[in-house]
Amino acid sequence: MLKNAFLMLLSLAIAVGGGGASVWYALKIQDGVGAIRIGQWTAFPDIGTPAADPYSKARVAREGVLALGRAEGLSFVAENDAAGDQLKRECVYRIEGGFPTARFWTLYAADQSLGVVETGKSRLAALQSYEVLRQADNSVVISVGHHPMPGNWLLTDGSGRMYFVLTFYDTPIASSTGLSDVSLPRIVKAGCDA
Amino acid sequence: MRSLRAALRRLLHAVLLGLVGAGIVHIVVLLLVPEFSERDAWSRLSMASDLYRMNRLDAEAGGAPVVKSVDPLFYATACRFDLEEGMVRIKAPGNVPFWSVSVYDRSGHNIYSFNDHTATGGKLDAVVLTPAQMIDVRKDLPEDLQGAIFVEAPIDEGIFVIRSFVPDESWKPVVSRFLDQSSCELQDF
To answer: Which residue, among A27, A47, A66, A157, would best test binding to B if mutated, counting the most B CBs under 10 Å from its CB?
Structure first.
């Protein structure tokens, strides 16, 4: 009798504990279903729409996100450089290449929660397309680091993991048909502060 | 020996049952999270202010932002409404480099969005209403609603957000004024 009760309790504990913990874990990891990957950049075009999968819906509810609509724009997040290493705040990177059609785009360095990196200066860790210098072929080269650099410079600060968030506003790529042949800039590590 | 094996088998049975149960609990919890979350955008906004009140989402207005507005080069403001009380009208005066509006339902899903290229002359003047209210409005369109954008949304409670681009430091006061002067009103009809 006692043994039966013990086994029943064990089953219940596994069911409730395992079920709860697996949901918590699934919502915690950044990666998810419905992601579109272009180079090092990842986007979730469906997040925050009624067509999203249950995991995205739960994440939206838990984090209180108000996602960008299709007519507004589309965000891409990068967590690795072209060599596959994690992005670090103490490193110097070069973001280079062409950008897809959009009215404008913004690029910023983010921390784990995808909020902008605090620089402690009046200059934000963010750039936008109206202020960048372009190459002769309309591509853009952006240097990312703690110290001022010639050309386009994205200021970062501190140390630890970093993410780049690139958002295109009022862009045809936000409609899913446009995403197939989009190419995004490469992220190349140029060195690290020891 | 035999009794030990029987006990082990029952233990295994219990563990397997538990795992199947865990699968069921996983699905149930996942589907209930949006239903019972107290951290979703609606709940956060309702703690900050009433219905039909504009609420800045960026830190510029002072204090920590209620709902995280991600892009640092953007200012945003949000307002909650309830279409059961009537249709809601959104207006903002002035010219800014870029604005966009999103309408969200109670659980934070983006159901409609548009930007300044959609509007006549780039003026932000929109009405959110249910399909039933739309039928009433169509019968006799009031004079002052002629230029407005009508957003038909099959919802009752909802949120809308105005986002506006701040290209550089000099635009900050202009964009701030644009959002602070925006209004969110219950429209009589």
So the answer is: A66
DSSP line for B18-78: HHHHHHHHHHHHHHHHHHH-SSSHHHHHHHH--TT--EE-SGGGSSS-SS----TTEEEEE
The boundaries of the domain holding residue B181 are 41-187
pTM, full prediction: 0.85
Name chain B contacts of A116, Cβ cutoff 8 Å: 72
CA distances for A74 relative to A38, A142, B162, B173, angstroms: 13, 20, 16, 26
Domain residue limits at A148? 35-53+68-192
Residue in this structure with the two tokens 């504009």, named with its chain if needed = B54
Q: How far is the C-alpha of A97 from the C-alpha of A166, rounded, in Å?
A: 13
Closest to A10 (Cβ–Cβ): which among B18, B31, B70?
B18
In this prediction, does ipTM exceed 0.85?
no
**Cα Rg of chain B, angstroms:** 24
- Looking at the domain assignment, is residue A170 inside a domain? yes
pLDDT, tens digit, 9 for 90 and up, residues B105-163: 888 888 899 988 888 777 889 999 999 989 988 888 888 888 888 999 898 899 989 99
CATH of the domain at A157: 2.60.120.600
Comparing CB atoms, the residue among B39, B110, B115 nearest residue A62 is: B39
For chain A, the maximum distance between any two Cα atoms, rounded to a whole number of angstroms, is: 82
